[in-house]
Prior knowledge:
2 copies of one chain form a homodimer.
Chain A: H1 11-19, H2 27-47, H3 51-60, H4 79-90, H5 99-120, E1 124-125, E2 128-129, H6 131-135, H7 137-156, H8 161-185, H9 198-223, H10 228-255, H11 258-261, H12 267-270, H13 276-281, H14 287-295, H15 300-309, H16 312-332, H17 338-351
Antiparallel strand pairs in A: 1-2
Helix pairs in contact in A: 2-4, 2-5, 2-17, 3-7, 4-5, 4-9, 4-17, 5-7, 5-8, 5-9, 8-9, 9-10, 10-16, 14-15
Amino acid sequence: MTASSSALRAPADAHRRASTVRFPVDAGQVLDRCRTLVRPALREAVERTHPWVGEMAAYSFGWCEVGGAPAAASGGKGVRQALAVLGAEAAGAPGRAAVPGAVAVELVHAFSLLHDDIMDGDEARRRRPTVWKAYGTGPAVLAGDALFALAVETLAAAPQGPRAVRLLSVALQDLVRGQADDLLFTTRPWTGPERVRPDEYRTMAEHKTGALLGCAAALGALLGGAPPATVDALDRAGRHLGIAFQVVDDLLGIWGDPAVTGKPVHGDLRERKKTYPVLAALDTPLAGRLAALLESAADPGEAAALIEEAGGRSAALTEARRHVAAVEAALADVPLQKGPAEELRSLLDFLVRRDL
Amino acid sequence: MTASSSALRAPADAHRRASTVRFPVDAGQVLDRCRTLVRPALREAVERTHPWVGEMAAYSFGWCEVGGAPAAASGGKGVRQALAVLGAEAAGAPGRAAVPGAVAVELVHAFSLLHDDIMDGDEARRRRPTVWKAYGTGPAVLAGDALFALAVETLAAAPQGPRAVRLLSVALQDLVRGQADDLLFTTRPWTGPERVRPDEYRTMAEHKTGALLGCAAALGALLGGAPPATVDALDRAGRHLGIAFQVVDDLLGIWGDPAVTGKPVHGDLRERKKTYPVLAALDTPLAGRLAALLESAADPGEAAALIEEAGGRSAALTEARRHVAAVEAALADVPLQKGPAEELRSLLDFLVRRDL
């Protein structure tokens, strides 16, 4: 990912662009439409695997309870499948052309959540026990592997299969790199030459979150017959979207309204997470004081105030806005169908811009 | 896999065939030659991933110690890479044509060992701590994922990529199915309608061990430009080889000489493993007595004697010989280059037949 000069366009300009849309698109409706389109093929893919493993997969998608009884739990927003469908539509193809790609990226996303929850020891996701907590670590490892294998199988069988699998494999490598760096960040000190720099964090977020979002949109475009420049532009847009989303998530993790985020106030500070605002603040002369506060049992409100004083909050806002602008620039860089492009922008608004 | 009538050919016939080879091929030399051919590309693939994850992968291949210092530990025999190389050569192509396939199957094999060791709680492999024991469960999950992703990436970039990835994805699905059944077998009773039948065990072994061996040989043939009938025949040969290997391993796990196997005598009985000889014996009127013995703290030698009395040992021998004959039949079914075909047969001898 390279930041072009247009990536630094001020957010005000981006808002002006959005305000020219006469009929604002409802992102929730877009997500619902794409979920409905992709769901049958996603279910069919999960049903291809071993029934026991398939139950764990279905549980992770919110389709069933432990034991297999039907459920209607939240299986996530389905952003990746929507990006794939809109990628195809933006290239002038029917959304159904993207379905194998949409299925593959949702499967890969579910696989990575499943394995990441094991690595991070997270016991709950979307208000339910995580798969490893509900079924055991070994079975959860296997269920993740199955989802991964189903994703590869689905894409390999698609038209444009070879190029599609290559796109996916790049994202898979990036996912591993991002998760490896994220795990290693926890072992590094707050200050000194071994500290985590904001640019390392940006690379981690691009790999861990952006790569699969970019792959989703790019796969949709590829399966929709788009030229390489369009595929690349959508990949780039998704990568910037991922970084922006991650940094906004970091901002909400410190200063978000618990009533909106559903997370405790200052939660990320209590958990001593190395998030963008913290790392940016640690890159200033206030680093020593902040590190001492983060390590102490002091009220995390004090640390939050110091991060703000050190400019960590505004640096994160600037960073997020820069990547939102880069998404806009990438979308403006290539010819896209107007309607689907607006729907893509509605997802961008939904995911990050309303919080900036 | 379907058992053809030729799959039931008596082993005596197979031995007569082997005895017509004037210059017996040394399987160790074949494995060494293929390992030397594939090693540089395998190392290059592992070096493409995150350095920390790459170290875990290199450790699992026996190339380094924890921390990265060079080592020359046993990384396994490399049977899968050899099958791929010989598959290409048997199709008349140079062995190097198979290298992407050979790398992919070795990566997938390493991935599956790594994750299986987590699921099975195994703490040692090839006289060293397993990756999860040495690096932690979370990192080992990630290292397995990385190996999996590298395998897909390697194959997707190869000529014949699309068909090659489809072949691999079939094997991956089978690996998951086999491991799922193997895990579930441990929870099922020794007797009664819920017991594990020998034919279920055979399917599990084909999936867990045979699918990747078949995929290896088939991928080599495919990358070597072989016609579909040859690719299919080699896939079938590898699947039968996997079942035969597994059943022979089961026989050695009960009656093998500890000085040869490096495993304790009756080890599989002490661990209450549901192996082929046990399951065959449980399919007889002696099932009740045997189940009681297996569950008791009695000398496992008694159980071994009862399994033999019930015909479990001879049933397993018959089963293994049947699949060895099926390998021979599959290899005889299609035109193959004489030298590489003999080398393939030397691997068969090396892996299973010397023990029958």
